[in-house]
Structures are given as C-alpha cells and as structure tokens.
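lol forgot to send this yesterday, sorry. struct tokens for the thing we talked abt
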C-alpha cells in the first residue's frame, strides 16, 4: 500500500459533531454582530511580516516565537496572519475607510496561525471571528463590545467570567510600567526563564505569563488602577457605569494585560473555568491606526476563538428530520423518485435519495444507518396509485399518502 499522508502537527480536520459545533458558533456570532450593525470585511491570510511586528509588538510571544513567516518567490517577507486586528487596520488605512469622517464597525472571520505547542484548545491553525470599531473614543462603544461578548456566551450557553481592566494611555502607563518593573526586579530570581528575558524587553508581558510561579508573583504586582490619569479613570468609570446599567456581570482584574502590545485603556477577557482558558478577548487600541501610518483614530475590538467556544458547546440546535427516498424497481421508478426528492427539497424538507441498489430490507437498514426519521418508497404500485408509503422509523407507523399530503406532514416538523 502507498504511504499514508497525515495532517501536519497542530493542524486538524474538523469532522461530524465538531464541524457542526464550529458552524453553530460562527452562525450564532454572525447573527449577533449583524444585529449590532457590523459589516463584514474579508481579508487576506498572508500579509507583510512587518505589519505584525509593528502592531503586535517585537517583544511579544506571537512575534518572537509563534509566527509562520516565509519569503515568497518574489522575495517578500510575509507571514500567515496570527490575528485579525492588524489586517483590519491595514485595510482601513489602505482603502481610506476614514475618508467620510464617520466611525466604522467591521467584522471578520477566518483562520489564524501561531506556532504554539498544541494542546486542547490550542492549535497552530485556529479560527477567530472578531469585530472592530474604528474612529470613536466613546465608552459606549467599549461597553457594547463587552456586551456583545456576554451575549455570545449567553446565546451559546457557555459559562465564562468576564474580566475587565484599563491599561491607561501614553500619559499614565509609563509610571505604571516603571512600578511593575521595580517590583519584578525585586523578584527576579523567582521568575521563569522567559520572564527573566521579558524583564528587559517587555515587563508588563510578565503579568500575562502562564507559568504558575510567575502567576503568583504577578498576583502581588502593583495595580494599574492606582496609576490611571484622570482621563483614563473617567473613561474606565463610564464603561463600568454603562455595563452596570445593562446588567452585565464582570469582575475587575487590575493586573489583566493582554498578549499584544497595541492595547490602551479598556481591555477584557472572557475566561472559561471548564477549559481554564480565555475564549473571547479584546480591548481598545487608540494608537494603532496612527502607528501603522493612518490618521490618529481611536479604535477597539474583540476576537472570539471559535474552536474554544465549540469545545464548550453542549447542545446543538435540532436539525430537520431526514427523509430517505427509496427508488424501487427500474428506470421509470428511479426517475420518479429523483423528481419526488426534488419536490420535497423545494418544500424545505431534508432529503437523501438512496443510491443503494438491492433488497428493500437493505434499504431500511441503510435508512437507520444514516439516521433517517422517515422513508418514502417509490415503486411500481406507488406510481400507479399516486400514493406512497411514508414510514416513521421511530414509531414504525406507515401511512399511504399523496405527495401533497407527504409535504404537508413533513414541512412543519
Ligand atoms: P492565550 O492567552 O490562551 O494564548 P491569547 O491571549 O494569545 O490566548 P488572543 O490573541 O487574544 O489570545 O486571541 C483571542 C482568542 O483566540 C483567544 O481568547 C482564544 O479563544 C483564541 N486563540 C488564541 N490562540 C489560539 C490557539 N493557538 N488555538 C486556539 N485558539 C486560540
Ligand atoms: Mg497566546
């Protein structure tokens, strides 16, 4: 036998239930985003590497060790996108979406790539659906972004804790960074190897480290909330006030940073205890558009990890019951069954036309194997009579009905 080729480490097939849950998550989120009047943007998977190094930050895990980068045949340094925000911002600037002077609400969906150590809920190709609002400082927008995340979780019936924080701005963050750095230097010996390195390059990142020892040290670090300037304090206060007004339950985590450098002011994460991982995350990035060459444009957004949410979906919406149409006889019966199946489908009924040949008993076995609820046999007698036996495979009840009666019976199930 020829050599079998397998999937690449960290890359996966989604089959059966898993694919159904994946699609359920995506469809649910899209519907919610459309109700909030977000417009879809479809983005390329490959971008110049420097788009990500400049936005996500040189001293982040994603850029330092997780990016799939390569030189294309034209000698360009490109990368498979590790996240969606940078591409949205690039598109916003490149297409001058700011030119009409009103803020934009966009959403995207697709594959992201990060060279991480694969585990449950962590893959090298995974999928996000995310939304961005570009061109507003209004804390109403921060509130709605968090509210959308809550709505996604509630609709999917996934329990998760919503943690929020403010990362301050260019005015107040430097003093906080300094305080954290001083604190961490005093605990240098206890930090993991990665964090010892981060100490010089990006000390705030240490607060996001997943090593237990580092987490413990981070839990005693200074709190950003003690360092926020008046503007950031007021903004954060408004977000909390509006969230309370909507009845959104959240916890404040004054040491919540994020894995990407571009955030400012509001950040948040929805954490699933069952998975022990973040499932949705986002925040403000008021400087990013300008840093990528656009006009100063305050902005914010979130991204939901589709696989992680799908892992937590317990129940799928009911599918339409399947009907197996069984041709029984010669060419005439086959053609009649072919047409009958079409008529049922036109009426919104889910129909499989049996391609199996042979005994009727085998046909019923097949119907059970594919999970059909009903069968309709189309044979010589049926053609003569204009009536077909509709059999319910659960109750074993069988009735001879006209095509119209079959449609009437099945359409409203
Ligand atoms: P983590 O801290 O778990 O590594 P992150 O902070 O790197 O997550 P973000 O960059 O904020 O994650 O991405 C947003 C969401 O995308 C995450 O909350 C998660 O649901 C999902 N996600 C991120 N990385 C992966 C991955 N490697 N595999 C599957 N889902 C992922
Ligand atoms: Mg990560």
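and heres what i got for the seq, position by position
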């Amino acid at each position: 036998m020829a050599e079998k080729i397998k999937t690449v480490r960290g890359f996966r097939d989604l089959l059966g239930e898993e694919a159904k849950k994946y699609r359920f998550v995506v469809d649910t989120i899209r519907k919610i985003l459309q109700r909030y009047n977000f417009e879809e943007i479809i983005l390329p998977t490959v971008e110049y590497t420097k788009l990500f190094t400049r936005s996500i930050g040189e001293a982040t895990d994603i850029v330092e060790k997780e990016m799939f980068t390569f030189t294309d045949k034209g000698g360009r340094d490109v990368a498979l996108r590790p996240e969606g925000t940078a591409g949205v911002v690039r598109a916003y600037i490149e297409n001058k979406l700011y030119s009409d002077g009103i803020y934009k609400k966009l959403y995207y969906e697709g594959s992201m790539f990060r060279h991480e150590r694969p585990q449950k809920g962590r893959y090298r190709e995974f999928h996000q659906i995310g939304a961005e609002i570009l061109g507003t400082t209004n804390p109403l927008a921060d509130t709605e972004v968090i509210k959308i995340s809550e709505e996604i979780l509630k609709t999917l019936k996934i329990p998760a804790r919503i943690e929020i924080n403010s990362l301050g701005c260019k005015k107040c963050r430097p003093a906080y960074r300094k305080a954290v750095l001083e604190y961490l230097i005093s605990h240098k010996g206890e930090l993991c190897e990665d964090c010892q390195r981060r100490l010089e390059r990006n000390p705030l990142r240490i607060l996001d480290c997943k090593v237990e020892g580092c987490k413990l040290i981070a839990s005693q670090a200074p709190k950003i909330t003690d360092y926020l300037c008046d503007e950031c304090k007021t903004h954060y206060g408004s977000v909390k006030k509006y969230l309370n007004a909507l009845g959104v339950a959240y916890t404040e985590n004054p040491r919540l940073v994020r894995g990407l450098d571009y955030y400012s002011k509001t950040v948040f994460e929805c954490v699933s205890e069952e998975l022990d991982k973040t499932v949705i995350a986002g925040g403000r990035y008021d400087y990013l558009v300008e840093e990528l060459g656009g006009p100063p444009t305050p902005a914010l957004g979130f991204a939901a990890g589709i696989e992680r949410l799908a892992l937590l979906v317990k129940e799928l919406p009911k599918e339409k019951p399947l009907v197996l149409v069984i041709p029984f006889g010669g060419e005439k019966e086959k053609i009649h069954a072919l047409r009958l199946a079409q008529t049922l489908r036109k009426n919104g009924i889910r129909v499989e036309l049996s391609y199996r040949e042979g005994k009727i008993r085998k046909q019923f076995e097949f119907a059970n194997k594919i999970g059909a609820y009903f069968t309709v046999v189309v044979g010589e007698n049926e053609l003569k009579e204009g009536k077909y036996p509709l059999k319910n495979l659960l109750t074993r009840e069988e009735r001879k009905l006209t095509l119209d009666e079959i449609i009437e019976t099945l359409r409203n199930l």
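The longest strand covers residues 104-113. anyway ping me if u want another try
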